[in-house]
Structure prediction request, 247 residues.
Amino acid sequence: MAQVQLKSDVFSLLEDKIKLINKGEEAIYLVGPIKLPVNLYGETVEFKWYCWLKSENVTEDFQEVIDHLSSANLAEYQQSSVLVYGDFENGEDALIRMHSICHTGDIFGSKRCDCGYQLKQSMKMIAEHGTGALFYLANHEGRGIGLFSKAMAYILQENGYDTVEANEGLGFADDTRNYDDAIEVLKALRTKPVTLITNNPKKLKALKAAGLSVSGRTPLWGDISEYNEKYLKTKVRKSGHLAPSNH
Prediction:
């Protein structure tokens, strides 16, 4: 009886924080918002955090979703999330960043890429702007090849390959990232136009192809060093990224 009451109490606290995004035969369950104070360049900035889970089980019975969490082994899989700042739903002008996870850059601060810098800087830009969201896309490691394959790609890069050649040498395309789920979450959170923080025109194209109202693009360059110069040049030369205006 006590266990039933506990489940009832848990559900009462969670049911208003769960939203179903129906994708036909698949579902995206969006949980949030949750207050998330973040240490951003030495200052505490309060964001609102959401996380989402993709599932083949489409149901509005959120108790059923909760009941299956402990047996779903979710810790073995990656889930994406989004940090929101300000009145994202209603604000007239919002900055957004579709940020692909980079285990080495975001967590360890690797200088082989510019990902860690882009993560922090885009959060700073969003907070200073007053309204926006950073989508943290967990299944995008190594442009979609995964962490283990990325480690092998790094070995190839240490032996003269560039980023594109290394991915292709392992049997992958240069970039296999997909933004469909993130776009569905964005649509659920906001219908007004957004400005995308990116150097990658493919991201801009993905948003526009999904029918989103995109009012513009803001570039994000910085933290260039001897360690990532070749990587950044390859982005422009082979992957179609837009070069900074002073290059």
